[in-house]
Amino acid sequence: MSELLQFLFSGLTVGAVYALVALGFTIIYNASDVVNFAQGEFVMLGGMLTVFAYAAGLPLILAAIVAIIVTAAVGVALNKLAIEPARGAPVVSLIIITIGASIFLRGVAQVLFGKQIHRFPSFSGDTPFRIGGATILPQSLWVIAGGLAVFYALYLFFTKTLTGKAVLATSNNRLAAQLVGINTNWVMTLSFALSAGIGALAGVLVTPITNTSYDVGIALALKGFAAAMLGGMGNPKGALVGGILLGIIEAMTAGYLSSQYKDAAAFVVILLVLFIMPQGLFGAKQTERV
Amino acid sequence: MRLSHKTATLLVLIPLIVLAPIFFPSNFYYRVGSLIFINGLAVTGMVILIGYAGQISLGHAGFAGIGAYSCALMPVHWGIPPVAAAVLGAVISALLAWLVGRPILRLKGYYLAVATLGFGILVYMVLTNETWLTGGPDGMSVNDSGLRDMAEAVGIDLKNSQFWYWMCAIVLVIGVWLAMNLQDSPTGRALRAVHGSEVAARTVGVDVARYKLQAFVISAVYASVAGSMVALQNEFVTPDVAGYMHSIEWVTMTVLGGAGSVLGAIFGAAILTTLPQVLTAFAEYEQLLLGLIMMLVMIFMRDGLLPSIMRRIRGKDE
C-alpha cells in the first residue's frame, strides 16, 4: 500500500510537469493552430536562467521571476520573428520551424550555459514528509501545487476576463474574431508569452528535483505533446488530466513492471486511447467542412 | 521536346552522382556521399508518404531499426546471408507497417504524428532494452555482407568507402526510379487525390484508407532498406538508427528540400547530411546554426529549397 502511494506521489510530481508543458502546447495551439515543439526549451530556459540569476546573487524568488519574464520575452520573439512571418504556411512547415527553433534555443543554451548539469536549492528544504508510509519531497508539493494553480488561474482567465474571452474567440474563428474588433496579432503575442512563461515556471519548480542541462527540453516536449494529445489537443482540462495520467502511468510502470519500459508504457496507452478515441479523451469531435 | 518528370529527375540525379567524386579531395567524402544516398533513399519513401499521400510520420526510423537489426540478427541466428536478411527485413517492415498502419492512419494531423512517434519510440526501446538479443545500447556487430569480395571477384577493386558510395548510389537510383513510376501510376494519381481532399477523393470512388495504407507500407520499406544499408556499410548497428531524432530528421529533410518532389527531398537530404560536417568547424555553434537555417528556409522558402530556387530561375526566364 505504502509502495503504491510512493509511486503515486512520484507520478503526480512528474505528471504535474507534463501537465504544465501540455498546457503551454494547448494555449499556443488554440491561438494559432501551431504545435510549438520548442515548448520543452521554455522549461529548460526557466530552470537555466534561474540557476544563473541565482548564482549572480539574486534571491531565489527574484531569480525565478526574472527567468520567467525573460523566457516569456523569448516566446514573444519566437512568435514575432518566426511564426508570424510564416503565417499561412502548411502545418508541416510550421512543425519544422518550431523544431528549428527548439534546436536553435538548445544551441544558444549550450553556448551560453555550457553542457554541464546545473541546479539550485529547493524552495523549502529537502526534509521529506511522511504520509501513510510513503515519503514526498516538499519540492514535489510545490510542483503539484504549481500545476494546479496555473490550471485554475487559466480557467479564471479564460472564463472571467475579457482578454481571455478574446483568446478563446480567436481560437474558435480567427476571421470572425477580427471582425468583432479583436486584435488577433496581439492575442498571438499574449499566447506565446503566457505559454513560454508557464513552461519557464515548470522549469523553475522542477529543477531542484531533476536538475537541468541544455538538452532537457526534447524529452519534456515529447511527453508534454503526448499528454496534450492524450487529453485531446486544444483542451486545457485535457492537458491537465492527460499530463497527470501520463505521469502516473509512467511511475506505475516503472514501479511494478520495468523501469526501462516506462516511456514505452506511456506511448502504448496513448496508442490504445487514440485507437478507441481518435480525438483524445476530451477532444471535441470535429467534422470536416467540404 | 519536353522530358517526362521521371526522365528529367534521373537525368539530373545520375550525372550528379557519377561526377561528384571528381571533386572529392579525400575518401571521407565518399563516406559522406554514401550517407547522403542512404538518407536520400529514406526521404524518397517519405515523399511518397508526405508529398504524394499527405500523411505525416514521426516514427519511420523504427522501420530503419528493423531493417538494420535484421541484417545484424538473422545471419547470426538463422544463418541467412546479410543481403537476404535485408530483403527479409524489408518484408517484416512491410508487414508491420501494414498491421500498425491500419489503425494509425485513421488518425489525422498531429494525432497521427504522435501515434507514429509512439511506434518509433517503442521499436527503439525494444532494441535498447532487450540486451540479450540486440546487445543493448552498445549495439552489435554485423557480419560482412561479402558484397565487396564479390565485386573484387569480377574485377572491381575499390576502397571500402568508395565501394559503398557506388553501392548506395545504385540502390538510391533504383529507389527513385520506382518512386517516379509510382507517381505516374493510377496509384500515384489516387494518392494525390487523397492529398488534395480525402472527402473529394472518396466521392469519386477512391478507397482512401487502402491508398493511405499503401503509401505507409511502401515508405516503411524504403526506411527499412535504408536502415539495412547503414548496417551493411558500417558492419555495426546501435539502437540509435531507430532513434526518433532520425525520424524527425527525415521529415525535416523532406520538407526542407521540397516534399512535392523526389529530387527536392534528396536535395534536402544532401544539405542536412553535409551541413553538420561543414559546421563541425564551428563546433559549439553547430546546433545554433542548424536551427537557424531550418527556420529561415521554412519562413522564406515555404515550398522547400529546390522548388523555390527553381521558381526563381524560371521566373528570370519568363
UniProtKB/TrEMBL annotation, chain A:
TM region(s), chain numbering: 7-31, 51-79, 91-113, 133-158, 179-206, 212-231, 238-258, 264-284
A GO term, aspect molecular function: transmembrane transporter activity
Main location: membrane
Compartments it resides in: Cell membrane
GO cellular component: plasma membrane
GO BP: any one term: amino acid transport
Entry-linked InterPro entries: ABC_transp_permease, BCAA_transport_permease
Top-rank lineage group of the source organism: Bacteria
Keyword terms of this UniProt record: Amino-acid transport, Cell membrane, Membrane, Transmembrane, Transmembrane helix, Transport
Membrane topology of this protein: Multi-pass membrane protein
Family: Belongs to the binding-protein-dependent transport system permease family. LivHM subfamily.
Protein name: Branched-chain amino acid ABC transporter permease
UniProtKB/TrEMBL annotation, chain B:
Pfam name, any one: BPD_transp_2
Keyword RNA-binding in annotation: no
Key words of the record: Cell membrane, Membrane, Transmembrane, Transmembrane helix
Transmembrane region(s): 7-24, 30-51, 83-101, 110-127, 163-182, 255-275, 287-306
Lipid bilayer topology: Multi-pass membrane protein
One Gene Ontology term, aspect cellular component: plasma membrane
Record-given protein name: Branched-chain amino acid ABC transporter permease
Primary location recorded for the protein, binned into one broad class: membrane
Organism encoding this protein: Paracoccus aurantiacus
